[in-house]
Design brief:
The complex is a heterodimer. Chain A is an alpha+beta fold. In chain A, 59% of the residues lie in helices and 8% in strands. Chain A has 17 helices and 7 strands. The radius of gyration of chain A is 22 Å and the shape is globular. Chain B is an alpha+beta fold. Chain B has helices spanning 39-50, 54-64, 69-85, and strands spanning 9-10, 15-20, 23-28, 33-37, 90-91. Chain B has 3 helices and 5 strands; from the N terminus they run ββββαααβ. The chains are: A alpha+beta, B alpha+beta.
Chain lengths: 376, 93
């Protein structure tokens, strides 16, 4: 592999292996080329999928030993992490259930058990749980009683509608507690807890208490998540989630998906997610038809969410979009204040401020830093 | 071998297993150390942890693998010792 191989080339090569268009990794060249490929596979979180695809094709033994041994090592680590995450999530959900808190399992930890042939193929180092907004205090108290420790982060709803709880002995198996599907005001109410819960399905193999959004909602969330929170990257594991979700939908599900996407004003975002998935990983008939339908639906209405497609290009623009989406002058003022003045608890821990004077200085320092970042 | 072949062995409660296309990874939650077993090791693990004794596991494996019985016995003893040493198995009465 020469220095001219780009990240896009590697993405396409890995994608081709995943969707069966190629049976091997091809010429990976020298040590530098092998390192590039390993880095790409890790970034895309597809080590397990690549290994599995090549083993099924009978070409895994042709992979250079260095790549084989490193991917084998990472896959074993992923399997160990999966076992740990699985135990933590069943423990957390059981605890929440006992405390009368209804919770839904989201994203990778759910897909690992509902979509993938084996859970270790969908790497995750944490577990995303969604609760009702009014249950967040009870949920937090439950997790803390189970021994989790809240990670230091800004505790203002307008900025973060989530909090991360670490196990006392490490960060693998952390619980991300959400009380909204998104930190972005524009997407926060796209789907409410009760809408999701009404169609939630049990997660196999995790005990009856663990539920996750039904397939139509899961696909909507998967399409929104990558643009709303991560700048619309071509990260293969997220696109593979969409591919597997798409395979599972019936024609009736597809009609409902398109209708809901239009009603929620995210038709363009959903179309984009499906189209990107199709371009890299292939598509099925249902997804192809949905892409066409969503294209027409998106053109027929104004969708502010479309501004997130392709990434928003920086913190300042992201803030501007959040400000625009916040409903009413009070919400807008609250958003600005939350960014300018995070909660005292966060500031004390983040800046080590033990006195009032130190705290005031920390706020000023933070504001100056933030202003420099926005301007740059 | 650290225990007799008539011992009944089971994984402790703080040991988890994750399957991996016929192989497996065993995680010791106390130490957070994990161990990979290849296909044969995984089959041995399954035999040991479901049989009433190591001897019964050995006899079950003998019917599956066409290998020298003494070599199989030695391999089984070696894997049992390793699993016991790392806290992945314990003797159950």
């Amino acid at each position: 592999m020469t220095a001219a191989v780009t990240a896009s080339d590697l993405t396409r090569r890995l994608a081709a292996v995943l969707c069966g268009d190629r049976a091997d990794l091809g010429d990976v060249g020298d040590a530098a080329g092998q390192a590039q490929l390993l880095e790409a596979s890790a970034d895309h979180a597809v080590d397990g999928l690549v290994r599995r695809a090549l083993r099924q094709r009978g070409t895994w033994s042709d992979v250079p030993p260095r790549i084989q041994s490193e991917i084998e090592r990472r896959v074993r680590a992923a399997a160990a992490a999966e076992a740990l995450c699985r135990r933590e999530l069943t423990r957390a959900v059981s605890g929440l259930h006992a405390a009368g808190v209804d919770a839904l399992l989201l994203k990778g930890a759910a897909f690992a058990h509902t979509l993938y042939p084996a859970p270790y193929l969908r790497p995750c180092v944490d577990t995303d749980l969604l609760v009702r907004r009014e249950d967040r205090s009870a949920a937090a108290a439950t997790l803390e009683a189970l021994g989790y420790v809240r990670r230091n982060a800004i505790a203002r709803d307008a900025v973060h509608a989530q909090a991360t709880y670490d196990r006392p002995t490490g960060s693998i198996g952390a619980i991300d507690l959400h009380w909204s599907i998104s930190n972005r005001p524009l997407f926060a109410e796209t789907l409410t807890f009760d809408e999701l819960a009404n169609e939630a399905v049990p997660v196999p193999g995790l005990g009856g208490a663990v539920r996750t959004p039904g397939p139509v909602h899961a696909l909507l969330l998967a399409c929104v998540h990558r643009v709303a929170h991560h700048g619309d990257p071509d990260r293969l594991i997220w696109l593979y989630d969409i591919k597997l979700l798409a395979v599972a939908l019936s024609p009736q599900d597809w009609r409902r998906f398109a209708s809901l996407a239009a009603r929620k004003r995210i038709a363009a975002v959903c179309r984009h997610g499906l189209a990107m998935t199709a371009a890299l990983l292939g598509s099925n008939e249902g997804a192809a038809a949905a892409i066409e339908a969503l294209d027409q639906l998106a053109r027929a209405q104004r969708e502010p969410s479309a501004a997130y497609i392709g990434g928003v290009g920086g913190d300042l623009r992201l803030f501007a979009l959040d400000l625009y989406a916040a409903r009413g002058p009070r919400a807008k003022a609250h958003l600005v204040a939350s960014h300018l003045f995070p909660d005292v608890h966060y500031m004390r821990r983040a800046f080590g401020a033990t006195t009032s004077a130190a705290l005031a200085a920390a706020y000023i320092r933070r504001a100056a830093r933030g202003l420099r970042r926005l301007v740059n | 071998m650290a225990v007799a072949f008539d011992a009944r062995l089971r994984p402790p409660d703080d040991v988890l297993l994750s399957e991996l296309d016929g192989e497996c990874v065993i995680l010791n939650l106390k130490t957070e150390a994990y161990f990979g077993l290849d296909e044969i090791g995984t089959r041995m693990w399954t035999a040991i942890t479901t049989a009433d004794s190591v001897q019964a596991a050995y006899e079950s494996l003998r019917t599956e693998y066409d290998v020298d019985p003494d070599a199989l016995r030695a391999d089984l003893a070696e894997i049992v010792d390793a699993l016991l040493e790392h806290g992945l198995l314990e003797v159950r009465r």
